[in-house]
Amino acid sequence: MTSPTPRVVSGIQPSGTIHLGNYFGAIRQHIALQDTHPGDAFYFIADYHALTTVRDPAVLRAHVFDSALTYLALGLDPARATLFRQSDVPEVTELAWLLATVTGMGLLERAHSYKDKLANNITPSVGLFFYPVLMAADILAHDGTLVPVGKDQLQHVEMAQDMATHFNEAYGRDPPVLYRPEPLPAKAAVVPGLDGRKMSKSYDNSLLLFESGKPLRKRVGQIVTDSTPLGEPLPFATCNVVALLRLFCDDAELAAIETYYRDGRRDGAPFGYGHAKLLLAEKIEQHFAPARARREQLLTPAGRAEIEAVLTRGAQRARAVASATLARCRRACGLR
Ligand code: ADP
Ligand code: TRP
């Protein structure tokens, strides 16, 4: 049960400013896949999903804009990848209803993310409970067969597989009405935040992609380290600064840094955490310099118009696919 051409589909929830964890855990892989699947890489900004947490319309609009801006600044190429707003393809919500009618309550009750929210005393809305059905509809409406996601989203993709199977079992296996999606888990390790926990917007421990200069150095300065005095050997294997440097340095650079840590010295002079943090701030600034420049261009009136045009064209392409899928599903289950 595979679709004629493999299609990559993934979404990003516009619920906060994008950080290094989002970049290395998800976005970098999304952008790389436009090279291997040109014309068949679909990425959307999941604004319907964001409504489960964001209640301020101006904030939602700002996050949606910022997500599109960030993808385009980082190199998403609209000639090869389709970028759109989820809510510009309302077929997705109709498919979510059709899927809900073949989905058992038990499946949704087993969702880790839902159980975590309950454990954290969040009073769940029906929308929060329904979240995985909408996510399955996103994938299946666009005939997604490859779904690049972070490890935390794997169970949701497995649920989409189950829903596709249940729908096909009810309404037509041969030929299948819906295609089975496969997850493509991100290879990157979990990116630690300033305090050593997983970097997350909920923990206020993030490093953002486009900060630079003094504010960036100040933020990097807040990374938690131990109290080894300047000039003493430092613990390389367990250091949070090193964990972040690994994302930016090649093997030779890391080997050199390892010797500075072991000796507590670089080129004869004392080397401490302050120096390691400066190295990291430079690396972040260099790595994102081209994207930062592109972002500045996109923040001009002409750039903003370009972003809108990309999202509008993306939605047209995505809707063409989703409306064909919906027509297939409606016919299969006896709707006009
Ligand atoms: P947050 O934890 O900040 O709310 P999201 O849950 O919105 O981030 O994550 C969006 C994407 O980024 C997901 O695919 C997730 O796996 C990935 N991601 C988020 N934080 C990290 C991290 N610290 N390390 C690796 N990947 C991450
Ligand atoms: N739930 C995903 C996240 O928080 C975002 C998302 C929504 C998604 N719909 C999707 C990801 C469909 C992949 C496919 O990261």
Topology, pairings included?
Layout (H helix, E strand, L loop, with lengths): L7 E5 L7 H17 L4 E5 L1 H4 L6 H17 L7 E5 L5 H10 L4 H5 L2 H8 L6 H16 L4 E4 L4 H18 L10 E4 L27 H9 L18 H6 L5 H13 L1 E2 L2 E2 L2 H15 L1 H10 L2 H33 L3
Parallel strand pairs: 1-2, 2-3, 4-5
Antiparallel strand pairs: 6-7
Helix pairs in contact: 3-13, 4-7, 4-14, 7-8, 9-12
The structure holds adenosine-5'-diphosphate and tryptophan.
The site of tryptophan has 13 residues, from strand 1, helix 7 and strand 4.
Description of the structure:
The structure is a single chain. This protein has 336 residues and is mostly helical. The chain has two domains: 8-192 and 301-333, Rossmann fold (3-Layer(aba) Sandwich); 211-287, Tyrosyl-Transfer RNA Synthetase, CATH 1.10.240.10. 54% of the residues lie in helices and 8% in strands. It has helices at 20-36, 47-50, 57-73, 91-100, 105-109, 112-119, 126-141, 154-171, 213-221, 240-245, 251-263, 273-287, 289-298, 301-333; strands spanning 8-12, 41-45, 81-85, 146-149, 182-185, 265-266, 269-270. It has a three-stranded parallel β-sheet. It has a two-stranded parallel sheet with strand order 4-5. It has a two-stranded antiparallel ribbon with strand order 6-7. Strand 6 (265-266) and strand 7 (269-270) form a beta hairpin. Helix 4 runs parallel beside helix 14 (301-333). The longest helix is centred in the C-terminal third of the chain and has 33 residues, at 301-333. The model has no long low-confidence stretch (mean pLDDT 95). The structure holds adenosine-5'-diphosphate and tryptophan. Adenosine-5'-diphosphate (ADP) binds at residues 13, 21-22, 24-26, 149-150, 152-153, 188, 190-191, 198-202. Tryptophan (TRP) binds at residues 9-13, 46, 49, 135, 138-139, 147, 149, 153.
